């Protein structure tokens, strides 16, 4: 008998009188002790499936037909109170975003206490306050949070993302569930932290004898975490196969495209971008640039944060210069200084031969440098149509009324969108289309440098591939130079002509991707590359090795 | 209390002191540009020019304006606002004597705002878009739009017609006299003096004025609580607790309520200003005899020293109330304590 057996599940959402069919005949089986992955892109219905199993669907959702068998019994026929009894006891979920998953005005301990207390109430377990505390500390040790007492006293905002993710796993393990549902765990974290979290989950599944339903969009994660894989798209299970078989011989085109869209880290598929010729006058020069932020305090001396320490770099014309690093490494601060939005505390930024402090009040000339932000959903004004958004930079560029509309049409055409999109609002566009609009806006003033700040990290892999192709095409046709900021090293391996790695405000390594990936010099670079989830054994074998001692020196462990 | 919270409070305190300074400057300038010579007003039309001049010197009105302002400020800090131009008595003594009456009314009003506003807001959020919510929102709209003086008169009429024996004027039954207690708040003094009948009668007298004053505040707090609850309801942390089987009522009444109480508390601090303004009128309607109605009389009689005292005291009220609310919010939300506030 399977532990969980979903049969022909149909779920629909109703909003504003509109019925949307989000799950169509979904069937999925998890045997006791099995690790199953459910993979799909945004809106594929993978999270809805997990919510249907847990009975946490939103109020406007309805299960229309099908069955969910738990240890052979159809739980959809059970009353709500009985299904409530399964939560956290038989099946537990590990949430995705570790910050918003906690109530900010209560301590971590309060959350853990309450979950345990109410689970005990349902199970008729009697435990004293002291026993509960001992049990919680025990579980926190299991997720490698040694200093459990301190963690319990802390408020959510006082812990790092990795520690919060560990607490979320501890919440799920509190009552030794049979099934662990992990919804994109670690996705919001740095790649090295994500790696730690995934290894921890794997170890726990092993030692605690759990079954795992892994929900993810990342095929590299699937390879690490699953024996059996379901591929989902638009509410339909497209393909179901054992892990090795899916990667070796995908049966559907969709699965094939999904695998092909992943930028390879090593092997024959890797693309080497041609290096730009080194000239006497690079487009961008940073000379000994420092940036310090000071938080003034009333009683204590000002707290200084050294965001950038002594960065020297040159970006050649026509280059795609990649700046990689984890959150807090200072890469975005560097980008802001290149744009002239922020002034360096020390050192000089020279753009096209002109030091920034002399030109335009320290701002970069708009016709020289433009920026594309990470999240097109928030960088476009929702109350302006695409045309109105594109009009702004054109007016600043000094175009007359009659010249603007033809130029908007040309820009949209340039980024591969029909002219009729000019009258649409951002919410009518998909994520990829929005990012195309953001790129068109950056192009409007005919810049020579475009700063791309994580331009594809909010997009699905298949869309990412299209946006990257567009960016490459624009570069060769318009002769642009890119400063490409990202934490996704496998993407950068294929897109950049040169990359630099930042760690705590310093550049620790610089070179062509081929050099850096074949023979990374700095242990931090090795640790970063080693943590990337890849999809073939060959790539895994080609990754550099890091010793635990090196990891301890350069990575902040999320275990405490 | 850690360093972060203390720093946050000190910043606010500095801000509030400057508010009081600006207020004092404004009321001082206003008092001096109003036509009419205070000395002449105090002595009446029959006094000779010589007498008026001597009065001016006595009141310090012959000094240059900046010196007058500094004198006024120095007096205000010591609690000395001079003598009333009308009654000739010490303004501070008069105002302090009337202060407990207003304080009792304001405290009762704030209590009503929280007691009704927050639970009704939670109720509306929990039954969002159902009939209870719709009715509450409609009623609250009336509450927000109805001016306090109208509410006061309507409530007074209601009490007079339908509750025959219900007192509608003053603070206490006349037969009880005015018991002299330590606090001046009759409800509390009644208990302290072992006179439950005084407390009961004071509460009866308090009910309708306080209700009239609190109506718009109740409505406002209800609306804010409702939207804060609904806003936070959608957050991931609600999902977290629900997925582990923590009952919905616990999530609502413990987790959401604490998080959602910051917004209504902030609003209450702002409401405080209009609350004092409305008290001027409501005290008149119910013959309350507090310092607010004293202020209104002073304005009508152009008793400048009394006006200044009342305005500065109202300002102090507002500032102290908001400081107290900031302490409360700082205790509720740990993020304010950690970052030292923004």
Number of strands of chain B: 0
Radius of gyration of chain B: 24 Å
Uncertain residue segments of chain B: none
CATH topology of the domain at 264-368 and 447-518 in chain A: Rossmann fold
What is the overall number of helices of chain A?
21
Q: Spell out the helices and strands of chain B N to C.
A: HHHHHHHHHHHHHHH
CATH class (first level) name of the domain at 264-368 and 447-518 in chain A: Alpha Beta
Average predicted local confidence, pLDDT of chain B: 84
Helical fraction of chain B: over 70%
Tally of alpha and pi helices of chain B = 15
Question: What would you say the CATH architecture of the domain at 99-302 in chain B is?
Answer: Orthogonal Bundle
Q: Structural class per helix/strand content of chain B? A: mainly alpha
Largest pleated sheet of chain A:
6 strands, mixed
Q: List the uncertain runs of chain A.
A: none
Residue share in β-strands of chain B: under 5%
Question: Nearest-angstrom radius of gyration of chain A?
Answer: 26 Å
Major sheet details of chain B: none
CATH domain class name of the domain at 99-302 in chain B: Mainly Alpha
What features would you highlight for this structure?
heterodimer, A: Rossmann fold, 21 helices, B: 342 residues, mainly alpha, MetI-like fold
Task: Outline the secondary-structure elements.
The complex is a heterodimer of chains A (560) and B (342).
Chain A lengths: L3 E12 L2 E13 L4 E5 L6 H9 L6 E10 L2 E2 L5 H7 L4 E4 L13 H16 L5 H14 L5 H6 L7 H13 L5 E5 L7 H18 L2 E6 L2 H7 L2 E6 L2 E7 H6 L4 H8 L23 E12 L7 E13 L4 E5 L6 H9 L6 E6 L2 E2 L13 E4 L3 H4 L6 H11 L4 H14 L16 H13 L5 E5 L7 H18 L2 E6 L2 H7 L2 E6 L2 E6 L1 H6 L4 H8 L6 H6 L5 H7 L6
Helix pairs in contact in A: 4-6, 6-7, 13-14, 13-15, 15-16
Chain B lengths: L2 H31 L4 H6 L5 H11 L5 H14 L12 H36 L4 H15 L2 H15 L23 H7 L3 H38 L2 H8 L4 H13 L1 H24 L5 H10 L3 H29 L1 H6 L3
Helix pairs in contact in B: 1-14, 5-6, 5-9, 5-12, 6-9, 7-9, 7-12, 8-9, 9-11, 9-12, 12-13, 12-14, 13-14
